[in-house]
Predict the structure.
Amino acid sequence: MADDRCWIDVGTVSGVFGIKGWVKVFSYTDPRENILNYSPWYLDLNGAHTAFKVMEGQRHGKGIIAHLQGIDSREEAARLGGVRISIVRDQLSPLPENQYYWSDLVGLKVYTLSGQTLGRVKSIIETGANDVLVVDGERERLIPFVLREVVEHVDLAAGTMRVDWDPDF
């Protein structure tokens, strides 16, 4: 039976920490330690999402370390190296109006104000000043994600985004 839950990737297991089963984690969340707010984590083991309760965790240098229930030795933790960490969409907190999770924007169809299709949001780049949408259509476009100035309207239910953008740019 296929699992039809909506999975959100939040990090990867990047290594082992110590001898008691702790893992190093590369977190995709911002700030990085926000990954510790979610439990359970679903680890992609041989194509199946397996739930692991987060027992403890903390920021360690530029990364995160965590102890997962049932992983109590260095050897067990080592088997998790490189594994993707996901959560279920329902674990995300609701956002205020006009704020979006990146995972909700990826895949949206992007149209100009005049209705011309530019493509779909393929990914998003964090630049510091503002996020940038990578829109894949007849060619790739980089469009700043600036609400009310460039991005006029986002309709998650319809799967669309309307932008004030010159299609020749």
